[in-house]
């Protein structure tokens, strides 16, 4: 198998004349260029013994022999040997690795990569061997936890490494203390450069999605089934960052002692979050709590984590206590309408931007708004305080002074959070999704049901779609015969109508059916593709019978109450008529 993998071409050695002072005595030198291709000849790797095991494979200590015309080198390396893949999938992984190899080597906060090979029929990634990790330090510490100064220092270094890796388009998706390696200079480097991300789209022999996309104890809700509950994004690693810091603080792994299935039910079904210990500097406690926002859009960016951890280092005493963190106020978790300040801080308004009043998150847009659409002509305030914008609205003589947090930027007719539809539909995923970002140059990123990651394109490829909101009643469209997800039917065989209880960041709808009477563990909550449903309301019901059927959708008790009321009325009428006779 190894010889059938297409190995990248190696750059050959070259000769040059070396001038050493005498032009008549030039010396010919044969040089070997610096390694630019990631491929390693399997014969140059000598495995010693296994030193670890993870969800994607085993880790071996090995020796990497590098040689050229002018040198012989032996390096002690760690080799991550992945679980077996089919040959065509092995080549796909190696092609992905090759595109990112040199970029990763330029990142000081990420482990140094030697290259990739195929050993014993398995993809093997060779990287510099580091003597220890944050996990090792925790195991040697009292109570299994680190001091606050060490946590802030390592957290800052971890955030820097994450920012570097995200800058080349990679996600880690496997954040945990054992993957945070410590260099000889006591600097933290990321030991996993995004193997789960490179494995996206590649079937594994183990069909367990949880194992494929990370270590369950540190996984964000969207990691468990990203095509349905996604998309995976930069903020997915932020959840893993928070879990890792909580473990450093407490010495206890999040969800310790629970199986993968139990963790799934805790995180995804019951929406439970790791417990953040009290007594931390307020800014640190606040940002770590923000890491566990269920909607990934409401989590802080890694740059927010870096800012808080770096600034907090200067406020820590030698005994672990802290002083006030200056005049910078602690942001409240939410500013209303379902948004956190972390969400709002991801887009900074500028003079000249077109804006409108911000719509509530996953809720019906109010009929009356302060600013339907206008242009910013001035800004007042700073990022640390309540900032205001001066907005010129057509038809009004004076500019309005409006709080920035209540405004959203409109670019090419779109704003983040809008429901959008692809003009050119595809069979690979739902054509209806939620806009996550629109840049001033028209670049957009959208969450679509059926895609594991954000769709990236241009604004001209999109059009506005019908919005959905929590509390809205929906039913399957008449032309939908086989829906993407299971959907309940009424006794007569027609589709039930249900009420939206939750909207996921990719537009996937969670629909409950209060009009159904269920017993025991029978499910009454179902998922729905927004492209397959339509809104139901009294206005859309054409006749009195249809309107009554919609009343039944509100609660299963409506029909028996109506029947009982009808029987009672009939009985009263019969008695009344009998007395009259």
From TrEMBL:
MF terms (GO), sorted A to Z: ATP binding; protein kinase activity
Taxonomic superkingdom: Eukaryota
Protein kinase domain segment(s): 45-317
Pfam family, one: PK_Tyr_Ser-Thr
Membrane-spanning residues: none
Protein name, per record: Protein kinase domain-containing protein
């Amino acid at each position: 198998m190894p010889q059938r993998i297409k190995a990248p071409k190696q750059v050959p050695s070259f000769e040059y004349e070396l001038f050493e002072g005498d032009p008549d005595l030039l010396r010919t030198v044969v040089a070997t260029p610096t390694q630019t291709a990631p491929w390693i000849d399997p014969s140059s790797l000598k495995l010693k013994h296994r030193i670890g095991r993870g969800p994607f494979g085993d880790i071996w200590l090995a020796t990497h022999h590098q040689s050229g015309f002018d040198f012989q080198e032996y390096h002690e390396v760690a080799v991550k040997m992945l679980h077996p893949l089919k040959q065509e999938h092995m080549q796909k992984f190696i092609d992905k690795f090759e595109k990112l190899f040199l970029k990763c080597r330029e990142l000081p906060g990420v482990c140094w990569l030697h290259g990739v090979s195929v050993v014993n029929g398995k993809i093997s990634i060779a990287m510099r061997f580091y003597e220890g990790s944050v996990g090792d330090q925790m195991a040697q510490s009292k109570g299994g936890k680190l001091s606050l100064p060490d946590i802030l220092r390592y957290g800052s270094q971890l955030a820097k490494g994450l920012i570097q890796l995200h800058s080349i388009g990679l996600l880690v998706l496997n954040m945990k203390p054992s993957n945070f390696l410590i260099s000889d200079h006591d600097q933290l480097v990321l030991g996993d450069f995004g193997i789960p991300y490179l494995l996206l789209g590649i079937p594994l022999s183990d069909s367990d999605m949880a194992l494929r996309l990370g270590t369950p104890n540190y996984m964000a809700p969207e990691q468990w089934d990203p095509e349905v509950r996604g998309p995976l994004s930069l903020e997915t690693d932020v959840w893993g960052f928070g879990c890792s810091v909580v473990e450093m603080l407490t010495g206890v792994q999040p969800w310790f002692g629970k199986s993968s299935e139990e963790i799934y039910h805790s995180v995804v079904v019951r929406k439970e979050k790791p417990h953040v210990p009290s007594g931390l500097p307020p800014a640190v406690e606040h940002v770590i709590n923000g890491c566990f926002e269920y909607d990934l859009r409401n989590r802080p960016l890694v740059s927010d984590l870096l800012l808080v951890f770096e600034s907090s280092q200067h406020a820590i005493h030698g005994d672990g206590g802290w002083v006030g963190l200056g005049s910078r106020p602690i942001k409240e978790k939410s500013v209303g309408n379902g948004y956190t300040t972390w969400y709002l801080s991801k887009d900074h308004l500028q003079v000249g931007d077109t804006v409108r009043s911000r719509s509530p998150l996953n809720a019906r847009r109010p009929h009356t708004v302060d600013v339907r659409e206008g242009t910013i002509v001035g800004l007042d305030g700073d990022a640390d305080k309540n900032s205001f914008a001066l907005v010129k609205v057509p038809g009004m003589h004076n500019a309005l002074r409006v709080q920035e947090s209540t405004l959203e930027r409109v670019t090419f007719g779109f704003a983040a959070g809008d429901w959008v539809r692809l003009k050119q539909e595809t069979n690979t995923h739902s054509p209806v999704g939620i806009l996550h970002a629109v840049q001033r140059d028209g670049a957009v990123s959208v969450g679509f049901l059926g895609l594991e990651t954000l769709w990236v394109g241009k604004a001209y490829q999109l059009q506005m779609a019908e919005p959905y909101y929590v509390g809205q009643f929906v039913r399957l469209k008449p032309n939908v015969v086989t829906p993407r997800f299971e959907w309940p039917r009424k006794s007569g065989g027609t589709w039930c109508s249900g009420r939206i209880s939750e909207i996921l960041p990719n537009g996937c709808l969670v629909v409950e059916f209060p009009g159904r009477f269920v017993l025991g563990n029978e499910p009454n909550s179902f998922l729905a593709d927004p492209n397959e449903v339509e809104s139901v309301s009294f206005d859309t019901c054409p006749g009195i019978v249809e309107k009554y059927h919609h009343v039944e959708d509100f609660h299963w008790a409506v029909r028996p109450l109506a029947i009982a009321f009808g029987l009672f009325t009939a009985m009263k009428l019969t008695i009344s008529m009998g007395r009259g006779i």
